[in-house]
Amino acid sequence: MTATLALTIGLAVLIGVSLGLLGGGGSILAVPLLVYVADLPAKEAIATSLLVVGATSAVGVIPHARAHRVRWRTGLIFGFAGMTGAYTGGRLAEFIPAGFLLTGFAVMMLATAVAMIRGRRNAEGKPVPHELPVFRVIIDGIVVGLVTGLVGAGGGFLVVPALALLGGLPMPVAVGTSLVVIAMKSFAGLAGYLSSVHINWGLAAAVTAAAIVGSFVGGRLAGKIPADLLRKSFGWFVVVMGVFVLGQQLPEQLRTNPLLWAGVGVAGAVAVTVAVLLGRRKPAPGSQPVVPEAVGSSSRT
User: Most buried residue, 182, 231, 275, 299, by most Cβ within 10 Å?
Assistant: First the structure.
């Protein structure tokens, strides 16, 4: 086993840990790992990440199903819609330059990071709909699936809020149900890519096995780390990774320009300051408090 392969497999454990702790974030780690550590071409890395995240999510749903934390009807409707979008995205990726896909992936990373750092408003005080808004669920499923199929990202951190808000699901049930959706649309996106991309199945199997082991580790760690701290720390980590991936897509003259990175540093400092100020702002009377993401809910609740 080469040093690069050993490092790739070792770091792949973090993909599963992320899914076990956060109910998402696997692809956020998988694509950069496969591109910059395993040295895979961008499209092959995205396709492989879909296999890794799909298989890990499929295994991760088992304890949720046993604990009755999966709303199968909602998950299957959302999942089948997501599969349609994901397969379409995987086929469309054949005609899009790899640099554009990685740029889109980096943008998705930054959007995910902002959502994680800000948190989301508690929906528990809102009335649960008596009937599932099937049309809205289908539309959201197709859109989220299309993003996933194209760039290999946009999994749990988009699916969980959609299930909680549209389906009126309690957060633990939304997390469990999201794993069903993530698995379905990841495999559909992979099917779309297989028409034009070759996968190193040996490497993919090794990374997948490591991620599955990591998901069990994440499940055991869930609840032992403060949820808010974990969510925000991971969010800032994703910001750094997103900026790095985005920077790699710039022309070499810009990528090696110190003035550019100085500007990025200043912008980052401003963003941190704004985030801190917003975090300290008191909620308006009658508004719902901001609560942590469903960190740890994927195995604890």
Answer: 182
